[in-house]
Structures are given as structure tokens and as C-alpha cells.
Amino acid sequence: MMTANVLKVRELCKSFGPTKVLNGVSFRMTEGEVISLVGSSGSGKSTALRCVNFLETPTSGEIEVMGDAVSAVVNEHGKTVVHGAHNIHNFRRRIGMVFQNFNLWPHQTVLGNVTLALLYALGKNKRDAKEIALSALSKVGMADFRDRYPHQLSGGQQQRVAIARVLAMSPKIMLFDEPTSALDPELVGEVLRAIRGLADEGATILLVTHEMRFARDVSNRMIFLHKGEIEQDGTPEELLRNPASDAVARFLSSVMPLAA
Hints:
Shape: globular
Main location: membrane
Pfam family, one: ABC_tran
GO cellular component, one term: plasma membrane
Number of strands: 11
CATH superfamily: P-loop containing nucleotide triphosphate hydrolases
InterPro entries: AAA+_ATPase, ABC_ATPase_HisP-typ, ABC_transporter-like_ATP-bd, ABC_transporter-like_CS, MetN_ABC_transporter-like, P-loop_NTPase
Subcellular location: Cell membrane
């Protein structure tokens, strides 16, 4: 039985001035798949993630989410022109993103932070919004903290609330951009366990992370980026056991103590 592609990325390029950050990145993602984007700092991982929901506008290339496509082309004047821009709104309704920083409303409780978008973006009534929010908070182990404010939470707890806020919106794809990078080491595990729980429940996840052991254990595929290009795309076992290039091998040799 074939599983439908929920995300297609074709020939994605992104430049900041003269600096080319992405150079022809292409991959597909199916429903329920967990893909980790890995590679050295500066390889283009986070930029690729941000281009998927047009937080960054690609210089050129095409993104397709569940059949809706948005493409960027460079015109004769060297300027990027976006086609299908009306679909960007659909992208953002279907894609949820968890950032490095938590971005919680400091004046709202945990429950308030999760229900706000349900009330104002999706038009849910208060009773339904509360029920959905508590269900999402339960999945990340934060329902008992519903009445606390962000300043009363640890960094790991705040990030789990941020995950619940995205989860409550029922996204088709969840993007995670280095979700543990702003945390103290002792708090990393609780966030990774929350993400693993979502993966075990069948969530479709595109993850940028330096946590190689976690990426190996949770992913169906790992995509290694090097200087803005895909150097290797395969299962964790393929990538870790049979690096496709010297760049992949060098990276793995530097992180193998973490991935052992």
C-alpha cells in the first residue's frame, strides 16, 4: 500500500546576497515519516526548514504541501518572483513549527498559551479549545501545569508547552528547528521524550537537530546537508554505517561518541 507524499521539495535554492546557503535541495516526505536534517553548523539545515513554510522565501525552487504548490523563480532582472503565493496560507494551516526559543506569551497561563490560536485562528469555542489544549498538554506531560505562567516553568517545560501549542492545531507536518539548543543539558531529555512520543503516535516530523543519537533512534530517514546540498539521504543505518562521502564520514567521526 502506497503512502501519499505530504511534502515535496524540488530544487530549493536560497541565497543571502552573494552567499548561497541552499543549492538545489530536493526530497519528498510521506505521511507518518520522521526525517532528520543533519550536518555541520552552516550547512543550510535551518534555512531549508524555514523555506518549507515560507518563513524564508526561497531564491528559487518549489515547495508542494498536500498537492498545493508554491514556486520561486529568478526573473530576467535577477529578482525572485513567487508563483502560487495564495497557497502559503494553506501551508501554514497544515504545518506547525517549533522554534529554538519558546516564544510563549508571558502574561498567559500554560492553558492560555495553547488555547489562544484555537480561539482566534481556528474559531473554536472556549469549551472545545480547552478540551483540545488539555489533550495536547497531556501528550507532552504538561496538563498538570495548566495554570502556571511561563516564568514559573523550566526551559524544558516551556518548550513542551510550545510543542503542545503546535500540536493542538492538528498540523499535517511538524517542523522542529533545533528544539533543544536553548536548553540546559539536563533538560534536553524531557523535550526529546515528548518528540519521540509524537513520532510513536504517527506524527509526520521534519527535524533539524544536533542530537545524533536521538536522530538515529527516532528517524525513518536522515538527510545529510553539506554546503547547502544533500550529500546523503537514507535510513539512519545506511548513513551511519556507509557514509556516502568524505564530508559525511568526517562529520560522523566527530559526533560518533554522541551517536554510540
